[in-house]
Amino acid sequence: MQGSKLYVGNFSYSVTEDQLEQLFSEYGKVVSAIVIGSKGFGFVEMSSPEEAEKAKDALDGTEFSGRSIKVSEALPQKSRPERNY
Length: 85
Fold this sequence. Notes:
The protein is of the alpha+beta class.
């Protein structure tokens, strides 16, 4: 794994950043945990790529808050063209 940031998807819309951080903290130090609105996905940044890999391997496909979550390496954000309205 190249980076230490993970995409986490398919969790319940009621999941909080604290719950996400608590889940991932079992696999290393969580630098940040962000839930994107109430969309059922977010991002977790671990303190090292090794910890991120360990968390991904352990949690991908497991049940969290009643749903089977998807955990994968986060892709770099694509730059969006500037819009002039």
